[in-house]
């Protein structure tokens, strides 16, 4: 109730709450674990704020859906990596510092939402469209996490240039549907966040930028996979689509 209080009282309570949690984490955890804990707490706090916005009658309700989706995505990236491949686990597994372009895209979407809400408020109240975006977000994130869990220790956030002893070609489960299900999931998740926010400019921008990024990423990764598995991967490539529109992957034959 204090955090929801209006004006200076609410802002002061929020600042004290954040400072108190941070101090408690510093006392409880050593430096390496503190870095993990403070990020997890930040994401949990963002999820809670999003939940409050989502369940109220605020005009920012759809932005609350977005906050929940974004914070859950980043937290679950770390969690599933910890379960699947703890040897590759690091602070980067949260993907909070994925790239400058990723952070710029997120900031752009917040700016567009705020400006359009100020000047075209009716554009941000299209509930059916936001619901479609939320369904895209849920589908994309579930597909990505299913891909990570199916791949197990073979999954890594960084494209591997050297084949380890445990590295195998995964073709079962969601990998029987698409060659790159984690990228397919992330692609539709990212676009879905902008449909959810009813951001027409960022919908187009995210679609083009994501498509270009994954086209280059898939080509880079498939060169490595062909090097690792040779004809076995080429046969898999012939049978299973990449899953992303108009992306066929690297054009290379042995």
Automatic annotation (TrEMBL):
Database matches in InterPro entries: ICMT_MeTrfase, PPMT_MeTrfase
Alphabetical GO biological process terms: methylation
Statement: the UniProt record of this protein carries the keyword Membrane: yes
Location in the cell: Endoplasmic reticulum membrane
Membrane topology: Multi-pass membrane protein
Function: Catalyzes the post-translational methylation of isoprenylated C-terminal cysteine residues.
Family: Belongs to the class VI-like SAM-binding methyltransferase superfamily. Isoprenylcysteine carboxyl methyltransferase family.
Transmembrane segments: 12-30, 36-53, 186-209
Name this protein carries in UniProt: Protein-S-isoprenylcysteine O-methyltransferase
Catalysed transformations (reactions): [protein]-C-terminal S-[(2E,6E)-farnesyl]-L-cysteine + S-adenosyl-L-methionine = [protein]-C-terminal S-[(2E,6E)-farnesyl]-L-cysteine methyl ester + S-adenosyl-L-homocysteine
Keywords: Endoplasmic reticulum, Membrane, Methyltransferase, S-adenosyl-L-methionine, Transferase, Transmembrane, Transmembrane helix
Organism, scientific name: Aegithalos caudatus (Long-tailed tit)
Highest classification ranks of the organism: Eukaryota, Metazoa, Chordata, Craniata, Vertebrata
Signal peptide residue numbers: none
Source superkingdom: Eukaryota
Catalytic activity, EC: 2.1.1.100
GO cellular component: endoplasmic reticulum membrane
GO molecular function, one term: protein C-terminal S-isoprenylcysteine carboxyl O-methyltransferase activity
